[in-house]
Amino acid sequence: MTNVTGVFKRSTNRRRFLKGGMLAGAAVGTGLFDGGLLAFDRHAAKKDSGGLTTGDAALLRFAAAAEILESDFWQQYNELGGIQDSELPDGSGSPIYTAKLQNLDSDMAQYIHDNTEDEITHFTFLNAYLASKGKATVSLEQFRTLPGSTATGSSGKLRLTNLMELTLDTSWWTRYRSRSENPDLNPQAMFPQAVPDLFSSPHTAIPRTDADLTPDAHIQAIANTAAFHFPTIEQGGNSLYPSMAQRATHPEALRILISIGPTETMHFQTWSDKAGNAVSTPLAPLTDPTNGLTFPNLNSPPFGGEDFQTNLIMPEPCPFISPTLPVCSIIRPTETEGIAMGVVNFLTAMGLFIGQTPAFFQFLKDLAAEADAAKHGV
Ligand SMILES: [Fe+2]
Ligand SMILES: [Fe+2]
């Protein structure tokens, strides 16, 4: 049950990579960066004419890439388990999967729809803002190669992300319930998993084919896996934005980062409440008879108490900045060093990119290295 989790695993060779002239390297070679703009970035006065710094643009570009990836997998959820309408027209819904999600909350389909739309607006705005400032934007369309679900209800479109082999680190559950540990102050802190099986082997969070729609406990376990994937992802965004904001220079870049970030927090808070319904009565305990995946009842022994009780969804205060200061209810982690590469590693370890090409990973790492090179005031 206990696992050491790195939260966001930092890159150790980031500086070496940057010294190697990354900006002129692989990222530019993709054709998605305009060489002229990069030259402008390097040589223009950093803050004249109210412009963004090179670092500001890199932070917003990495955020846009992360939001494109979020949009891609939220779209997959919406096609099968959300609401397909004029705002999100793709797919036609999987009635059984949708019903199992609604066992967690009758509003699940609406929440999935709205989270999906939020992510689409995030990357669309970020790219448009970058373009309005004469900065390079991000597209991942060349990497849209994954086949995705063939279950009834899926649009069958090619995907950027893979929801069918997820290994979910559910330790955020106890990280936000710990009053004594903050990974920023103690990177070795141990946070037990809420659903150990989700972290020990890969599972699908959507019906892969219509064969996944039975037996009943199997498709409920798939819906429950989705219910834990939602907050697992959104708590990442919840840390990413305040971590990146500390590296912003231009007030408008800062404003964008600190205005999008809390919407990720709103998603996380909502989803952590819904995930709790997968690990409490009447749904829990539940074991998938096809693979043994078990969702325990976290309100009963050996669980329960401050670390597991499902209605304790407000962040417990924890040490912040210094252990000599009083505990404080905060987002954590918010360490800024290596945050973007940490997020790439976090999503990769989750299995979200299984099947993607080496060029895809290189592209993401290049964006992350640029963002991690940003420094406030430089
Ligand atoms: Fe987002
Ligand atoms: Fe998000």
What can you tell me about this protein's structure?
- With about 375 residues, the chain is mainly α.
- The protein has one domain.
- Helix content is about 45%, strand content about 0%.
- It has helices at about 15-20, 25-30, 35-45, 55-80, 95-100, 110-130, 170-175, 195-200, 215-245, 250-280, 340-350, 360-375; strands at about 285, 295.
- Helix 5 crosses helix 9.
- The protein is globular and about 55 Å long.
- Residues about 10-50 have low confidence and may be disordered.
Domain unit count = 1
Radius of gyration computed on alpha carbons = 21 Å
What is the helix/strand order?
Answer: HHHHHHHHHHEEHH
Fraction of helical residues: 40-55%
In this entry the ligands are:
fe (ii) ion
What is the number of strand segments? 2
Mean pLDDT: 90
